[in-house]
Design brief:
The chain is of the alpha+beta class and about 290 residues long. Helices cover about 50% and strands about 20% of the residues.
Length: about 290
C-alpha cells in the first residue's frame, strides 16, 4: 500500500518540474525539505538520485536559490531554502523566461508575417494549369470537378472515352450531378448513337434532365465548369488517338472564350429525337415510369 507522504512527495515532484526543475532537482529538493540539513550521500539515499549525479544536482539547486550549502569539518551539508522563498524565485524566473519567449514570438510573427504576405502575392505563372495522363487520373479529376460544380457544366463528348457513357460509374456520376439541379448540356457526335449500349446510356442522361445536341464531328473533347474551369483533350502525336492527355485550366477568360465555341456547336446540333431520325435508327424508347 502506498504511504500518504509518498503520494504527496510524488505530487510535489511533478509540480516542481512544471516550474522548471528537472526530475532529479525536484527529488533532491523534496528530500532536503524533510530535514534540517543533509550530506550529499544522505540526499542521494533519500531522493533516489544517482550518487554520481547528486553533487551537480545540489550545486544546481544552490545556484537556483533553492538550497544553501554549509561547509564543515565533517563535510558539506545542504539545507533547503524555505518553500515560500524558493518557489517565488522559481516562478519569477519562469515568468521572465515566458516574457522573453513572448518577445521572441512577437518579433518572429512580425518578420515571418511580412515574408508570408509577400509569398502569397507571388504565384507561378503556370500554377493554374494541370496536365493529366492516363485514364484513372483523368477520371478521378473529372469526378472531383463534377462533384464541386455549382451551377453549370458544358461538355463536348467524343471518343476515345476516358470512361464510356454506358459504364455504371459514369451513369451514377451524371445522374447524381443532374439531381443537384446543375444545368448540364452536352454535345455528342452522331457516332455515339450508332452503338446500342452508348445510345441507351445517352438516352438515360437525356431522360434524367441533361440537354443534349448531336453533330457530325467535334473538334476536341471539352468540359467547361461554372465558366471558370476548362478541361480539354490533346491527342498524343506519337501514341495517337488511343492515348489521352488532358489539360485542366482554371482561368475565367479562357472559360468564357471556350463557352462561345461551345454555343456555336450547340446551335448547329440536332436534338436527340432529330439525331435518331437523321440516322434512321427508329423511335425513342419510352421514358421509364
Amino acid at each position: 500500500m502506498t504511504r500518504p507522504e509518498s503520494m504527496h512527495s510524488d505530487n510535489s515532484i511533478g509540480q516542481l518540474t512544471q516550474l522548471g526543475l528537472n526530475i532529479y532537482e525536484a527529488k533532491a529538493y523534496v528530500a532536503l525539505v524533510g530535514r534540517d540539513s543533509s550530506s550529499a550521500t544522505e540526499v542521494a539515499e533519500v531522493s533516489g538520485v544517482p550518487r554520481q549525479r547528486i553533487y551537480d544536482i545540489l550545486a544546481s539547486l544552490v545556484e537556483r536559490g533553492m538550497a544553501i550549502s554549509r561547509p564543515g569539518r565533517n563535510g558539506t551539508k545542504y539545507a533547503a531554502v524555505a518553500p515560500s522563498n524558493a518557489l517565488a524565485g522559481l516562478l519569477e524566473r519562469e515568468q521572465k523566461r515566458l516574457n522573453e519567449l513572448q518577445a521572441v514570438t512577437t518579433s518572429l510573427t512580425t518578420a515571418l508575417g511580412r515574408q508570408y504576405k509577400a509569398g502569397q502575392e507571388v504565384s507561378s505563372p503556370l500554377e493554374y494549369i494541370e496536365v493529366l495522363r492516363g485514364r484513372q487520373a483523368i477520371n478521378a479529376r473529372f469526378a472531383e470537378i463534377q462533384e464541386h460544380c455549382k451551377k453549370e457544366i458544358l461538355i463536348f463528348t467524343k471518343p476515345p472515352y476516358a470512361m464510356p457513357p454506358q459504364e455504371d460509374q459514369n451513369k451514377e456520376e451524371v445522374i447524381s450531378t443532374l439531381k443537384r439541379q446543375i444545368v448540364a448540356r452536352s454535345v455528342y457526335e452522331y457516332s455515339v448513337l450508332t452503338n446500342e449500349e452508348t445510345r441507351r446510356a445517352v438516352e438515360l442522361f437525356v431522360r434524367s434532365g441533361e440537354d443534349a445536341r448531336f453533330v457530325e464531328r467535334l473538334p476536341l473533347k471539352l468540359v467547361i465548369v461554372d465558366e471558370e474551369i476548362v478541361m480539354f483533350a490533346m491527342e498524343d502525336p506519337i501514341a495517337g488517338r488511343t492515348e489521352l492527355t488532358i489539360m485542366v485550366v482554371e482561368q475565367k477568360q479562357l472559360a468564357e472564350m471556350m463557352k462561345l465555341a461551345f454555343e456555336t456547336m450547340w446551335a448547329r446540333g440536332d436534338t436527340f429525337e432529330e439525331a435518331l431520325m437523321r440516322l434512321g435508327i427508329g423511335e425513342v424508347s419510352e421514358q421509364p415510369s
